[in-house]
Amino acid sequence: MKKYFFFLHILLIFLFAGCKNIPSNLSVAEELLKTKPDSALKLLQNIHPESLKNESNKALYGLLLYKAFEKNNEIINSDSLINFSMNYYDKENEEHELAICYYYKARFLRKSQQFDNATSYYIVALDILKQSDDFYYIAKIYSDLGDICSIQNNYNESLLKYQMALNYFQIANDSTQVSYTHVNIGRVNRFLKNSNEALKNYRKAIYETKDSMLYGSALQEIGINYFDTKEFDSAEFYLKKSLNFPFVGTNNAIRCSFLGDVYYEKCLYDSAVYYTKQALKYPTTYFLQRECYRILVNTEYMRGNVEVMGKYLLKYQEYVDSIHTLESQTKAIVLEDLHNKTDEACKAKKDLIINTSILILLVLIISYLAYFYYKSTLLKKDKIQKITDKLHSKQAFLSQHLTKGLSEAKLMHTNLRIKVSEKERSILDKKIYEKKLHLYNWEAFESEMNKAFNNIISLLQEKYPTLTKREMTWCCLQLLEVPNKDRIMLLNSTQEAIYKMKQRIAKKMNLKQTKDLDLFLLDLTSKNI
After folding, report:
1. Nearest 5 degrees, angle CA 99-CA 105-CA 111?
2. What is the mean pLDDT of residues 68-83?
3. Residue 68: exposed, middle, or buried by beta-carbon count in 10 A (0-12, 13-18, 19+)?
4. Which of 137, 189, 202, 395 would bridge with 194, disulfide CB 3.0–4.6 Å?
5. What is the pLDDT of residue 400?
6. Is residue 102 a contact partner of residue 122, using CB atoms and an 8 Å limit?
7. Are 37 and 72 contacting, i.e. CB atoms less than 8 angstroms apart?
């Protein structure tokens, strides 16, 4: 019976997909993401983006693919698809989908260790999502910000971010993510040497979860916490227990290497060697490999196996050197630059006498030519200044003419405006603006604004092609000093939407702060002479 309802559900998805012009495989994948993310990922990976005929389907495909990768704990190594989706939803002003795209863009940047850029995208996404009830993504953003703060050693700020994440995961009723957050909070407390508090967090995670992978991670962290406090029997118990649970990434290598370290501290050298060698069989990092060979070197030394210890010591030094090379790449470039500059300095000394005599001759020739160039360009400069002054004057005249015309038109209808209702007054004001500015005839409006503000529309289209017509209209209304309530009326918008539009315009113009936009627009019109 359950299978019957499942197939009926899938059939309904196909039917609704046809009504919305969304390919059926995309709709099925979107539905499968809720219960069977692995099946959704396989389905999405069999779709060729080139086969999707319109931009909305391509944007949806990119967003669904990133969701599927995240739910399956897999890493995507390219941001081209999410960039396309982000640009599409920005253009279509679909803010919720845009915020989710910002979230996945930020995750990609975080994986690339571009923490500043990632944080910027997280904050913008959070501003949008706070207006909705999408508590899951709000919580995920706070959790990721907590990760970044922890990496940057801002542990107190990290705890605050994780606490916010915990609150929103609880509101979203996501018990698994609540438990993961307890583990994260515990890890930060361990970094802060609050081992007792860390244990409380880990045990909360264990009591609240049924997820075997998370359970193993919590046991692993408890074991490491006991290792840090030199309670090696307890560390051994929990680390060995964690080996019975599934893992992702380098977790099993971490468990085995710490277990090897525990047995070394307990002078059980055979077990120390066994588990350390086991760690080297799993996915690992240079840092973990270095620690493993440190344990093996120390263990063989204690056992008196000098020859074997020497072999491990070479491997230990190899990974020490690899890490040193990795950490000092920038310093190596600096040294190389200094070396090149030293060579250039030596060569310059050898050629100093010849170059000095040539330089003196060139200075005399250039000085002679500069005198005549100065006299000829002085006249040209005066002519250019006169032309510039005329253009500025023309711009000011046209701009003032438009602004004055709007004010006079409103004054002429003052009596009529007093008698009519607010709605009728709004309609009347719209007619006045339309008559003076041609707001609803783009070609006429563009021509009028270009005359008034030194080709402002043409300049915006050339320098910032992602700006929409509504956004360029807002820019012109700003330059005309149209009151904000009139802008809301003319753009059929709200106070909040107008403010968000201003934020988007500032971002597209690469401005650090929204408040810089007004002065930037004025500067833009004055420079385009």
Report:
1. 140
2. 85
3. buried
4. 189
5. 62
6. yes
7. yes
The C-alpha torsion from 292 through 294 and 297 to 299, rounded to 10°, is -70
Nearest to 84 by CA among 69, 67, 73, 98: 98
Token couple for 9: 């559900």
State the Cα–Cα distance between residues 125 and 140, nearest whole angstrom: 11
Dist CA 378 CA 380 (whole Å) = 5
Which residue stretches of 130-244 are H helix? 135-151, 155-171, 175-191, 195-208, 212-228, 232-242
pLDDT tens per residue, range 507-518? 998 988 888 888
Tokens representing residue 425 in the block: 């007054």
Of 326, 232, 315, give the one whose Cα is nearest residue 280: 315
| pLDDT, position 306 | 85
For residue 71, the surrounding DSSP H or E stretch is helix 55-71
The answer to whether 442 and 475 have CB atoms below 8 angstroms apart is no
Contact 288, 276 (CB under 8 A): no
Of the pLDDT bands very low, low, confident and very high (cuts 50, 70, 90), residue 106 is: very high
Cβ proximity of 456 and 520 under 8 Å = no
Band (380; pLDDT cuts 50, 70, 90): low
Over range 86-104, report the average pLDDT: 93
> Helices (DSSP H) in 328-441: which residue ranges?
329-350, 352-412, 414-419, 422-437
pTM above 0.70? no
Render pLDDT for 399-453 as a digit per residue (tens, 0 to 9): 566 566 666 666 665 655 566 677 777 777 778 778 777 878 888 888 888 888 8
Sorted by where each begins, the domain ranges of the chain are 390-527
User: φ, ψ for residue 512 (rounded to 5)?
Assistant: -70, -35
User: Which amino acid, one-letter code, is at 115?
Assistant: F
Mean pLDDT, to the nearest integer, of 344-354? 61
pLDDT at 129: 93
Residues 6+ apart with CB under 8 A from 428: 413, 416, 417, 420
Residue among 47, 54, 70 at smallest CA distance from 20? 54
